Amino acid sequence: MSSVAETRLRWIDRALPRRYARLATDLVKYGFASGAALAWDFCLLLLFNKALGVDYLIASAVGFLGGLALIYLLSVGFVFEGRRRMRPSREFVGFLATGLAGLALNVGLMRLFVGGLCLPVMVAKAPTAVCVFTFNFLSRRAMFVAEDRGSSPSQGGVP
Questions:
Q1: In angstroms, rounded to a whole number, what is the distance separating the alpha carbons of residues 114 and 97?
Q2: Residue 146 CB: number of other CB atoms within 10 A?
């Protein structure tokens, strides 16, 4: 994240107690990273479904997996600065597990909204993305971030 963006997020540190400031900062950073991943997810969904004629559920899964790869890179690169120390392979497996749970949630909600409620695919993606974002942020933050309970988290960077 640029120094300008870091400076703009410092108001959070002054306005909230330390624990909540860290949560709010992580949420803002994850929001930006998720926006980029969602844009990639959406582009892949459009490409596969509209341009290539792939079934919407398969296209949605392909888009989601592309977004998963991007959000992983962004998350380990700069979002969760207070990451726990763990082997990269174990970290990725945990991230993949939350991603697969998010994928199941994504596909289930798309099926509900498109197949059950007859919403257009692009309209159904909006509430699906909100639900999956919330699930992913909370589960990934719990996995990656050591809370301030006497633990000593690493200070950023990719292990």
A1: 25
A2: 15
pLDDT, one tens digit per residue, over 31-68 is 899 899 989 999 999 999 999 999 999 999 899 889 88
How many residues can be counted in the chain? 159
* Distance in angstroms (rounded) separating the CA atoms of residues 35 and 107: 19
Reported pTM: 0.63
Amino acid in position 122: M
The tokens for 80 are 């969760």
Q: Which two tokens stand for residue 103?
A: 């994928």
CB 49 within 8 A of CB 121: yes
Q: Quickly list DSSP for 67-124.
A: HHHHHHHHIIIII-TTB----HHHHHHHHHHHHHHHHHHHHHHHIIIIIIT---HHHH
Question: Contact 152/49 with Cβ under 8 angstroms?
Answer: no
CA distance 101 to 118: 24
